[in-house]
Write a structure and sequence with these properties.
This protein is α+β, with helices and mostly antiparallel strands and 128 residues long. It contains three helices and five strands, in the order βααββββα. The model has no long low-confidence stretch (mean pLDDT 96).
Amino acid sequence: MELNIKEGIKGYVEQIVTEKDSASKYGSGMVDVFATPAMIALIESTAMKSVLPHLPEGFNTVGTEINVKHLKATPLGMKVWCETLLTKVEGKKLFFDVNAFDEKGQIGSGTHTRYIVETASFMQRLNG
């Protein structure tokens, strides 16, 4: 199966920070602010959703590496969003530049790598 993923694909996802996204709920801290693991989940989700429409049926991506800085805290109730840019494709390996923002400015930046997999065979190898 030929994969036709090209550099330049952009992603965008936004959400409102709720208690379930807080550091105290994630166990990554003891304050009610947007947790670093929640920001990472937003980044991974944004990158995954950006390329999914470009993949053949039955294919997906899995995150393999993330290198981000969480630059500042965001309170509960504030809107956050992530922007991703697919900067490089090496076979099934996808490289993204990633940036996260809240209503007051940039809160995170870095890079993320994902790998294209055929979902059924990936799960079969995993389970068996």
